[in-house]
Amino acid sequence: MTPDEIIRTFVEHHHRLGHSDAPESSLVPPPGDPVLFTTSGMHPLTPYLLGRPHPGGRRLVNVQRCLRTTDLDEVGDRTHLTVFQMLGSWSLGDYDIATSLRWGFDLLTDGYGIAPGKLHATVFGGDDHGLGPDETARATWTTLGVPVEALGADNWWSNGPTGPCGPDSEIFVWTGDDPPTGTPSGDDRWVEVWNHVQMRHHRHPDGRLTPLPLSSIDTGMGLERLEMVLRGDRSVFTGDGLRPWVGAVGDRWGLRGADLRVVADHLRSAVVVLGDGVRPGATGRGYVLRRLLRRALTVLWRDDPTRSLDELPLTGFDDTLRRFRQPVQPGPLRAVLRDEEHRFRGLLRRGRPLVERVRARGPLTEPDYHWLHDTHGLPRDLVDALLADAG
Asked: What integer best gives the mean pLDDT of the chain?
């Protein structure tokens, strides 16, 4: 299946079950929201999970672009992405977890053709704070013939230290060449594709849990990872949405392995962030975008400082903007990349002798890092990159 076919299958399945389309949100949350970026499909729906009636009704479905800064340091492996698409469905005080899991099983096996014997589930097994195990989810999977593993904190979902939260059930698909064996917690050939969360509690700043006005279901499934599983691959970077960037970066600059994945991911992610109106800056969202671009450029210039983002064709820009449903022209976005690249080259020219001068006195200390940042605008990750280049 292509990504477009995967999305259509997901949405039509939920339409048949009475779900309405929830509008997709920008990566940039509305004013007053404390988070930098939309991190999950449920984030824009938080007010409705807290009890406000949704104009679309109590059953919803959508596709939401997401960005997770918590995964930045993991990007470079075969499965993590900075920006990705989340297929989501919601029951706002309507059906229960057993119904959600049964419908999910039907979609995975009948809609996507995954053999039932390649599925494994995990459920919340309780904790030391008096929260009991999720017996309903366990019984549902057992009835469906899917093996279950009960875990603790790994099967408790929240969008932050406070707010809606609850036990979840994660669905894994076997990606090994051999017959399925072991459990998800002990064998990484089990790849998580879908999470069904029971939004039943609200966590307060002091750690207390109180019941939400509605007991809701929030599910999320990463498009790129599901595509990987359906292809029978072990890397999201072979998928249709990543291929234009992987091809362009690999063909022009000869990068391979983790370096290729970092540059392809960061450039693609930068285009999506730019497409939602963010521009490089020294703080907040602008700094996240700047960090993505500078990390990509640092990898590119490690072997050849003459490489330039201007060498990239616009085909990757066009493809990404279409897939993420952003009606933006690619030309102005590439101009922003050109300006940021020029700025970074200038910063490197000024920063390298400063870092070398400080380093000559010995290993850098915390005051050294603060001085380089506060006085000369050199952030820690850039200083570390310059130190690494100097050997």
From this structure: 93
